[in-house]
Specification:
The structure is a single chain. The protein is of the alpha+beta class. The chain is built from three helices and eight strands, in the order αββββααββββ. Strands 1, 2, 3, 4, 5, 6, 7 and 8 form an eight-stranded antiparallel β-sheet that branches. β3 and β4 form a beta hairpin. α1 crosses α3.
């Protein structure tokens, strides 16, 4: 995977969540992910095609996504439900769009599919390309989440 693809997703994640959810996600050190088991309890996955192809997944711990969605919608959710899952799909779409705009500035043209949301402990994320992906861990006060990118 091209290292130049990492920063646009890192920057897009910070930008979208600061702007839409008023949280300051702190990125950790990217690492290679070889297994399919998701790191969080709810994940949004979106296919990407064009100059680069593959997929993006965002996987949130329950506490992190509850904080993010509560801030975004001004409501008080206490568990992962259909509203939270819908919001995860929309957040995935927004981060994908922001990252794709950043990549276009570097000469890449990438389009995205409609996001899919999966939830439950130990659910799996299978990237379109299969194999390893790059995981960028993030932390907010309420808990962790990751951006999981697999592009070629």
């Amino acid at each position: 995977m091209n290292v130049n693809f990492i920063n646009p997703f890192l920057e897009a994640t910070i930008n979208v969540l600061k702007t839409m959810a008023f949280v300051e996600p702190k990125p950790g050190k990217p690492r290679l992910k070889l297994e399919n088991v998701a790191i969080g309890e709810v994940s949004g996955i979106i296919g990407l095609t064009g100059s680069a192809r593959g997929s993006l997944a965002l996987s949130f711990s329950e506490q992190s996504i509850l904080k993010i969605v509560n801030n975004m919608l001004g409501e008080k959710f206490t568990e992962i439900n259909d509203d939270i899952k819908d919001a995860v799909g929309e957040i995935t779409n927004m981060i994908s769009g922001d990252a794709r705009k950043r990549l276009e500035a570097d000469g890449f043209t990438i389009t995205a599919a409609i996001p899919t949301v999966v939830s439950g402990k130990n659910h799996e994320i299978k990237h379109i390309l299969g194999g390893a992906s790059i995981v960028i861990p993030f932390e907010i006060k309420e808990g962790p989440f990751v951006v999981d990118v697999c592009l070629e």
